[in-house]
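Troubleshooting entry. The earlier prediction with nicotinamide-adenine-dinucleotide gave an output that would not parse, so I re-checked the input for stray whitespace and re-submitted. Clean input:
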Amino acid sequence: MDVWKEMKRLQVEQVVFCQEEQAGLQAVIAIHSTRLGPALGGCRMWTYATENDAVADAVRLARGMTYKAAIFGLPYGGGKAVIVGNPSTDKSEDKFRALGRFIERLQGRYITGVDLGTTVRDMDWIRLETPHVTDTTGTIMAAGDFTAEMTAYGVYLGMKASADYLLGSGDLSGRTVAVQGLGKVGFLLCGLLRDAGANLVIADIDNALVERAVKAYHARAVAPDAIYGESCDIFAPCAIGGILNDATIAKLRCAIVAGSANNQLQEEIRNGEELEQRGILYAPDYVVNAGGLIITACELQGVSVPEMKRNVERIYGMLLKVYLHARQEAVPTWLAANMLAEAELSKP
Ligand code: NAD
């Protein structure tokens, strides 16, 4: 990957390459945009196959954060930090403190937080070097699984809005929902769906998590590869990115795709078009999974917990707005969401 070309293509403001030999830190901070405010976005730690993969992941995720904040009118931009390394074996206080010093040097242009592979303890280490970090001990997001809870709640509301728009009713009782991924968000989402009277089909590569969900919600489990072909009203990708691709879309037998995973479309244009042609309503990922970002923004602005929940409930109306815009402009839903976000970004 040519980094400059990619920065131009995705309109990335700044990429910071962080290297500190003694702490064993190799990381990238991507600031996609500070047009609407400081760039907000978590810190991911992952065993990337190549250094280029780490940069590509950081810039793409940072861009998603910009669009997510913009479409909801939040006064933040988008950023992301990625640390190259194995989260199970390569963590140390030194490493996170070293990253904290890099973040401090950005003087508030980037605010980090928990993401895939990082925890509250890691954020506490970063906090020793900089105040520009969320999800530290004592914050509402660090208590229990509040971020996952609000993300699941947002996805649930997004499903209701999508069913309302496409099927004529937001009532999910008797609807069948296929949930891929039963981690922090997927499991809580299953609980909300079960309480709403939906039938659940589930899959995860971790058998213990499958068993837990079968027991808790009387869900029907299928093999990870079989979930795509399950006949259902809603398919909910709550595992990894890139899972809507040339191979999987052909198998889908659902009316709606709405789930928490980031960057679900492997190739935004081609795969988004394919879903459209197959008559499947796609809830753009960064709209439907915005619950976590919305409460982070709320916490930074000192908003109360009940008010935070009301803010997350905006996801319902926002998705309807995206769908109506897509219909009016005769464009796919992912593009309609981008258009609305870009309109916010280009406001004087
Ligand atoms: P998690 O790591 O707790 O759960 C992910 C689950 O997916 C794991 O149980 C894993 O075993 C499973 N999985 C991985 N590959 C799979 C496959 N091929 N088939 C089936 N299952 C598979 O993560 P999470 O916090 O629940 O987040 C889920 C997704 O939502 C991620 O993509 C994340 O980036 C996104 N997201 C999460 C939040 C949040 O608040 N946690 C917010 C926004 C977006």
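This one parsed fine. Residues 116, 147-148, 151, 180-186, 203-206, 209, 224, 238-240, 260-262, 289, 292 surround nicotinamide-adenine-dinucleotide (CB under 6 Å).
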